[in-house]
Amino acid sequence: MADRPVTKLDKSDVLAGLFAVWDDITALLDGLPEAEWEAASPLPGWDVKALVAHIIGTESFLAGVHAPQPDIDVSTLEHVRNDIGAMNECWVRHLSGEPGAEVLNRFRDITDQRRKALTGMPDGEWDAVTLTPVGPESYGRFMRVRVFDCWMHEQDIRDALGRPASDDQLVGPASELSLDEIAATMGYVVGKRAKAPEGSRVLFELTGPLTRDIRVSVDGRAQLVDDFGGREPTVTIRVDGLQFTRLAGGRRMCTARSQSIDLGGDEGVAARIVDHLNFVI
């Protein structure tokens, strides 16, 4: 079996997105009243503070900091489904009693550390293969996954606070990189999860500020393609770009944007793909 190709990404592009989303989260939380840190998020068992604690925990892990010892067996919690979830929960419980302002300070401190480390990282390390949430991949791809994770959690925080992103706030390097990361999984979603039949040509038409077309062709295996070679799609799924990211992340749709999903072509296959869009662990 051939080795999987390694994704090489421009370091400055990825870091621009990662640092931008950290800045946006900081701005969103700065001066937040204590009660709002406890607002329930779309993720089961987590409030706003838990979302921020999770990001702190992941960046701490990447900086070589061990997770704190939990006060209970976190693997028994209903919303913890794997080892990564258990590590997340150690940080969530550890920081749950801290005031929101202190949690924000911790977020600033660890992201400042990570900015310095990432900015100074040699290209050889950036391109080197490492273990990532999407399998053995370049460290740069891992950092694009980090952009996706942080950007998704920014939208979760906005959902919890009732402060959805404006069109202008949605556009930028972080959302573009997040869509790149989601698009990279659509072959798996269409082929493995939704089991679209051989010969399918699936077009995702994303509308709104996050407009883009994503094409997947099933030819032996399902994979992302730039075009269908002049042929028409057999399946079309037309949806607001932000709502597409919410569905791909297993979240509820944003109430501030259109929630309509228009299916074209083979509507049975289209509906099955929509039902299986959630790929996150």
Automatic annotation (TrEMBL):
GO terms for molecular function: metal ion binding. InterPro entries: DinB/YfiT-like, Maleyloyr_isom, MDMPI_C-term_domain, MDMPI_metal-binding. Residues 176-272 form the MDMPI C-terminal domain. Signal peptide: none annotated. Residues 20-158 form the Mycothiol-dependent maleylpyruvate isomerase metal-binding domain. This is Maleylpyruvate isomerase family mycothiol-dependent enzyme. It comes from Mycobacterium paraseoulense.
